[in-house]
Design goal:
2 strands; two-stranded antiparallel sheet; 50 residues; 28% helix; alpha+beta
Length: 50
């Protein structure tokens, strides 16, 4: 049953979003941190340009 549930989640609206991971330098420590967000496929390039 688990395989069937996972397969049903992959069809339809779920594929119109992407997980974007962006590496950003912390202003306090100077270390790099990773920011993760789920963004609509049409807005990915705009999000990365920030």
């Amino acid at each position: 049953m688990a395989k069937k549930a996972v397969a049903s989640l992959q069809s339809g609206e779920g594929r119109s979003y992407a997980k974007v991971i962006k590496m950003v330098k912390s202003p306090k420590t100077g270390a790099y941190i990773f920011q993760e967000e789920i963004v609509h496929n049409d807005k990915v390039k705009e999000h990365l340009a920030k």
